[in-house]
Specification:
It contains 17 helices and 36 strands. The protein is an alpha/beta fold. The protein has 2 domains: 365 residues, Purple Acid Phosphatase, chain A, domain 2 (4-Layer Sandwich), CATH 3.60.21.10; 291 residues, 5'-Nucleotidase, C-terminal domain (5'-nucleotidase,  domain 2, Alpha-Beta Complex), CATH 3.90.780.10. Helix 8 links the parallel strand 11 and strand 12. Helix 2 runs antiparallel to helix 10. The protein starts with 14 loop residues before the first helix and ends in a 28-residue tail after the last helix.
């Protein structure tokens, strides 16, 4: 069997070509199973600029990519070729945009319910609105808590009554359903204030009920662990593993939940689905590519591992077996070695990145075994014609976020955990999302595992705005102002291409959560210890100790790090040297640190750094006006912030949000323009060095080149098996 060849141009293939030639992909056997895979959509409803990949791994800029209308075109094209195709989706569906955040995901759920998803596995950010929203949206059994008062403000923006009837998509003939749970006793959610329920099955084997639920509910599964399907005469089991890192995020996310790694459950589940007649076992997992490769290597009965969370693109599917990981070549036949691995039971591991790609995996099944396969990561770029009906449905969800003929945008309010009084201001959205707020002469995209221009800009923005607030210098010990800021190493967010305009919509994709900008002072030792922990989480050789996100953006800081030779017991850390304000970090000195605080967390941290003191928050004098006066405010509450299911308000009513800070900073830049000269990499903020050589000479920071033995696919962003001495993986080379 031959993979379809990709020819010329800047795309893998156009959808027009795909639809016209899909029939040529038919495999030799009558038992062909087609899996459609779209993951980590991150609340993205409309097209956006993107950096895309060619089949050889080179990149090209797309002025317009993604969007749900284009996704629908690709999905429907595959289904027209194989009506029995299975549509799978994994990871971070209801988070990642202003539209999703200000409606706690409802604006995304309305169109997603029209895709006909067969099996879904939630991602870590699907828990970002708390347990009540998650349970009402995704669970098919168990408790359905009333939606808390603060969240009803957001859930009230979109209801099933707002879904337009579109022929062939949301009309009765299409089978479309929209439901909101409002009648749960003893405290029902008011009509119109429920969340939009998923009309597709969600599965996760590693998610359990926990306190403060009643003891009789604790320990029981929240979602079914798997779903059985039958396609083209083949019995298929789809097992789900959700993200295990939710307890490391904001504490309000996981009240009433317990997470495991999923590894413990797999042996019993595999035996169970085999006893039910499963011929094809698919595991869709939000643990990330590194851990998913390891799991696929460790369980010989897994046939396909559909990976999400790390936002990688496997242009060529990975074949994994025991200690081998081999990348197949897009558009080429399998080699003799790859066919041998497949016959010996190697698993096929694939991943796609947000709404920019749809995965198509065609499997030839004979005698309960995969004999051959085709994999394509189909780019969703300008060559794809949007589906008109889906475009109409998306437009209905966008309507309230765009200025009408009168120039007015519907007000949207976000009330975080603890903001129980609807009269409290909270975070306000009063501007059109397509408002141009700045420009850039360089690529803005979280695109590298270490330093990138976007995170440098974000960190500098918060530092600059925080230092512009006179109140800061009036705090004892803070007379010299703010020393440092950091930007979280999120993987999500839209790209803005060089020469492009930055919109308010883009800013909210970079911060599609509602943290409050806060400030505290920390010892130098606490700061460096935290950064070492984060580096460890990104590059740990034990992949099960890795967690989400890449490294942080640093403002007024410089670091030299050694990722190849450290850490080990005699060095202790990956960081070789840290400077703040040009001077070596003093472990005993107190540094003033401004960044962001996740509502509901203990009042102990700023941007993943714990152990701070004198925490304060920035607040606007007018929540509607990001340019209004900023002052410092003490915490509303500082102890017992989460008690059982109850969350107290910590940040002030009109808390400063990172998007406010970004807009203010853009206004201060010449021409409101982000420049490579000011924020670009390679200016010394982060340098990888060889600490085994005197003078710590710089190394190439491209870990894929430096560690080819550790990177089966050089197009991946993050080394899948970490970095550092190989014996830290538990294996000693002989």
């Amino acid at each position: 069997m031959k993979h379809k060849l990709f020819t010329g141009g800047k795309t893998l293939l156009s959808v027009a070509m795909a639809i016209s030639t899909l029939g040529s992909q038919a495999l030799a056997s009558d038992s062909v199973v087609t899996l459609i895979e779209m993951g980590d959509l991150h609340g993205t409803l409309v097209p956006h600029a993107a950096l895309m990949k060619n089949p050889d791994g080179s990149e090209y800029e797309a002025d317009s990519a993604g969007g749900l209308a284009r996704l629908k075109t690709v999905v429907d094209g595959i289904r027209s070729d194989n009506p029995e195709a299975v549509l799978l989706s994994t990871g971070d569906l209801t988070h990642g945009s202003a539209e999703a955040m200000f409606t706690v995901g409802d604006a995304m759920m309305v169109p997603m319910n029209a895709f006909g998803i067969d099996v879904y596995t939630p991602g870590n950010w699907d828990f970002g609105y708390g347990g009540a929203v998650f349970r009402n949206r995704f669970t098919s059994f168990g408790p359905k808590p009333t939606i808390p008062g603060n969240l009803r403000t957001m859930t009230g923006y979109v209801s099933c009554d707002d879904v337009p009837v579109i022929a062939g998509l949301t009309d009765a003939a299409s089978g479309y359903t929209c439901d909101e749970i409002t009648a749960t006793a003893p405290f029902p959610t008011p009509a119109g204030k429920g969340v939009i329920k998923a009309n597709f099955t969600a599965v996760a084997a590693n998610l359990y009920n926990a306190a403060p639920l009643p003891p009789q509910a604790q320990g029981k599964p929240v979602l079914p662990p798997f779903k059985m399907l039958n396609r083209n005469g083949v019995s298929i089991a789809v097992i789900g593993i959700t993200a295990s890192i939710v307890p490391q995020q904001a504490d309000a996310f996981n009240i009433g939940f317990r997470f495991t790694q999923g590894v413990q459950e797999l042996p019993g589940l595999i035996a169970k689905v085999k006893s039910l007649g499963a011929e094809l076992i698919v595991v869709q997992s939000e643990l990330g590519l590194s851990q998913n490769i390891k799991i696929a290597q460790s369980f010989k009965d897994i046939d396909v591992m559909y990976s999400a969370h790390t936002h990688e693109v496997t242009l060529g599917a990975l074949l994994v077996r025991k200690n081998k990981v081999v990348r197949t070549t897009p558009g080429a036949e399998l080699t003799h070695r790859q066919r041998h691995m497949l016959r010996k039971g190697a698993a096929i591991v694939v991943e796609t990145n947000r709404d920019m790609y749809v995965g198509r995996l065609d499997l030839e099944i004979e005698h309960g075994r995969i004999e051959d396969f085709n994999w394509e990561a189909i780019p969703v770029d300008e060559s794809v014609t949007p589906d008109p009906a889906m475009a109409q449905l998306v437009a209905a969800m966008e309507e309230d976020f765009i200025a009408g003929e009168d120039g007015i945008v519907k007000r949207h309010t976000f009330l975080p955990g603890g903001f129980l009084n609807p009269a409290v201001k909270g975070l306000q959205l009063v501007d059109d999302l397509d408002t141009i707020v700045g420009y850039t002469d360089t690529l803005l995209l979280r695109h590298t595992v270490l330093e990138d221009t976007l995170n440098n800009f974000l960190a500098d923005a918060i530092l600059n705005v925080a230092n512009s607030v006179p109140d800061v210098a009036n705090v004892p010990g803070w007379e010299n102002g703010v020393d440092i800021s950091m930007a979280n190493g999120f993987r999500f967010g839209n790209a803005v291409l060089p020469g492009g305009a930055i919109t308010l919509r883009d800013l909210y994709t970079w911060f599609p959560i509602a943290p409050a900008v806060n400030i505290a002072d920390f010892s130098g030792q606490s700061i460096e210890s935290s950064l070492n922990t984060i580096l460890g989480a990104v590059f740990d050789r034990n992949v099960f100790m890795q967690r989400g996100g890449w490294y942080l953006g640093l403002a007024n800081m410089e670091q030299k790090i050694d990722l190849k030779n450290r850490p080990f017991s005699s060095s202790g850390t990956r960081i070789v040297e840290t400077k703040i304000g040009g001077a070596p970090l003093d472990p005993g000195k107190r540094y003033v640190f401004a960044s962001c605080y996740g509502h509901g967390n203990p009042l102990d941290e700023v941007c993943r750094t714990g152990g701070g003191a004198n925490h304060k928050f920035f607040q606007l004098s007018d929540a509607d006006d990001y340019t209004s006066t900023i002052t410092l405010a003490d915490p509303v509450n500082s102890t017992a912030i989460i008690t059982g299911p109850n969350v107290k308000q910590v940040a002030p009513d009109n808390f400063l949000h990172p998007v406010h800070a970004l807009r203010r900073y853009l206004d201060s830049l010449p021409g409101r323009t982000v420049t490579e000269a000011q924020f670009g990499t390679g200016q010394g903020r982060l340098t990888t060095v060889d600490s085994t050589v005197a003078g710590n000479p710089a190394q190439d920071s491209d870990l894929q080149i430096k560690q080819p033995d550790n990177t089966p696919d050089p197009t991946l962003v993050q080394p899948p098996f970490g970095a550092g001495p190989s014996f830290f993986s538990g294996r000693i080379a002989k």
